[in-house]
Amino acid sequence: MPQPVSPVPAGRFSDNEREAVYRAIHTRRDVRGQFRPDPISEEVLHRLLHAAHHAPSVGLMQPWNFIVIEDASAKSRIREAFRRANDTAAALFPTERRALYSTLKLEGISEAPINICVTCDRSRGGEVVLGRTHNRDTDIYSTVCAVQNLWLAARAEGIGLGWVSIFEEEDLRSILQLPDHVVPVAYLCLGHVTELYDEPELQARGWASRLPLDNLVFRDRWGARRRNGPA
Ligand SMILES: Cc1cc2c(cc1C)N(C[C@H](O)[C@H](O)[C@H](O)COP(=O)(O)O)c1[nH]c(=O)[nH]c(=O)c1N2
């Protein structure tokens, strides 16, 4: 059996370490309206990108790039693309829902000192990538793993992060000048925040609520020990 080249202990974290990991997971929030204008230091930004870059990826493809946007005029073009897409999105909801939708703040593009577009280079790793042969989208999934690493690291650093997906992809492509083989996966707004919601903001505002976990776990579905899930 081959041994790890430089083994690290694989046991449980200490109580404090474990508590910190779960705290980051449970208190991470999507941030739209609570950004402070003060900059994120280079050291912190580097730690966040380093955390993102340590995400799992199919065949160790590491298909991501991180486009860091600080320029006010670039942000304002992106913000305008959001506004157009958001008008289209709003019109699709039934009247009552639309009224509530129009009260929601769904981005902090201009207020956040840093925006990051996380992209996926679908050509990285060549024609055949280990693990990707039967599901071409595993490169996109890998990129989303990088986003989640970034999000959790940001929480631990006291940096708020908001994911904005209300765009026509073509708008992002043209503003950011992305070549065809590069997909914009996530547009993120980052900055210091003073406070965070203690529950998802969309829940606090009556848009949706967290589903009970028990309804989502199907255990021993085919055996005698079925506990949860549909009959
Ligand atoms: C892929 C994807 C895309 C988006 C989001 C998330 C994800 C995963 N979310 C944030 C989303 O609304 C939020 O995560 C949930 O409401 C849960 O809240 P917390 O993240 O727990 O605060 C989000 N929020 C928002 O205000 N505008 C947006 O365009 C999006 N887009």
UniProtKB/TrEMBL annotation:
Source organism, top-level taxon: Bacteria
NADP in keyword set: yes
Alphabetical keyword list: Cobalamin biosynthesis, Flavoprotein, FMN, NAD, NADP, Nucleotide-binding, Oxidoreductase
Domain Nitroreductase: 25-192
A Pfam family it matches: Nitroreductase
Single GO molecular function: 5,6-dimethylbenzimidazole synthase activity
Reactions the enzyme catalyzes: FMNH2 + O2 = dialurate + 5,6-dimethylbenzimidazole + D-erythrose 4-phosphate + H(+)
EC number: 1.13.11.79
Subunit organization: Homooctamer.
Family: Belongs to the BluB family.
Protein name: 5,6-dimethylbenzimidazole synthase
Species of the source: Paracoccus alkanivorans
